[in-house]
């Protein structure tokens, strides 16, 4: 075999392995992208309520039960984070109806969204949670009354609360709770990262670590 043929064969082998490497890398990137897409889809859905700037670069996903006392304790903490970083942070609410009666409270919140009263009704239900979220014996009539006091038009809201799209929201969120291994509320993810140091300071620190300094 002369030198020229040997050089040509070596070059062909190199091209073959390079092409194979490019294909492998592209294939791996596709798999990674697919995994990321699945993760983002199960964390954030198009129907999910958003608090704060809709296109903020830092996303806090909160798996939230309206009847949960810990969710009520974290509510002002989350609001303070939004106030501290109004341009940088948004909160995506995922319904996690673990407690008895929480699915009905979710229906109240979804009806409030139809009337652009979501935040007002959410704040009222959190503030007065001890009045209606009685474990084992929730007072849902009181929950509806509290929503009315917050400005919700109740007749239309009751009709909206039982529409099929609300059933679908609950079904999807419950499925995503399972998909993400959520076993307690609140459970937080910040830009897809789970909150491992479960505390008010831990949440604040994780959010701060995701804030990109402005030039």
Textual characterization of the structure:
It contains 9 helices and 5 strands; from the N terminus they run αββαβααααααββα. A 5-stranded mixed β-sheet has the order 1-3-2-4-5. With about 220 residues, the protein is of the alpha+beta class. Helix 2 links the parallel strand 2 and strand 3. It is globular.
Supply the number of helical segments: 9
Radius of gyration: 24 Å
- Unreliable stretches: 11-39
The largest sheet, given as strand count, sense and whether it forms a barrel, is: 5 strands, mixed
Mean pLDDT: 86
Structural class: alpha+beta
Trace the largest sheet across and list its strands: 1-3-2-4-5
Binned, the helix content reads 55-70%
End-to-end separation in angstroms reads 62 Å
């Amino acid at each position: 075999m002369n030198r020229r043929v040997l050089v040509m064969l070596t070059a062909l082998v190199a091209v073959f392995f390079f092409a194979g490497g490019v294909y492998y890398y592209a294939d791996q990137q596709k798999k990674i992208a697919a995994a990321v897409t699945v993760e983002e889809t199960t964390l954030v859905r198009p129907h999910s309520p958003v608090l704060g700037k809709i296109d903020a670069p830092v996303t806090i996903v909160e798996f939230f039960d309206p009847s949960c006392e810990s969710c009520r304790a974290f509510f002002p903490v989350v609001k303070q984070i939004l106030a501290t970083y109004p341009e940088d942070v948004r909160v995506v609410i995922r319904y996690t109806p673990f407690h008895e009666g929480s699915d009905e409270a979710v229906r109240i919140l979804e009806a409030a969204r139809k009337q652009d009263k979501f935040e007002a009704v959410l704040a009222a239900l959190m503030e007065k949670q001890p009045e209606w979220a009685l474990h084992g014996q929730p007072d849902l009539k009181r929950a509806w009354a509290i929503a009315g006091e917050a400005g919700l038009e109740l007749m239309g809201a009751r009709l909206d609360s039982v529409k099929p799209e609300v059933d679908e929201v609950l079904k999807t969120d419950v499925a995503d709770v399972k998909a993400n291994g959520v076993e307690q509320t609140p459970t937080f993810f910040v830009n897809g990262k789970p909150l491992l140091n479960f505390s008010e300071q831990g949440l604040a620190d994780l959010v701060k670590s995701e804030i990109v300094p402005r030039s």
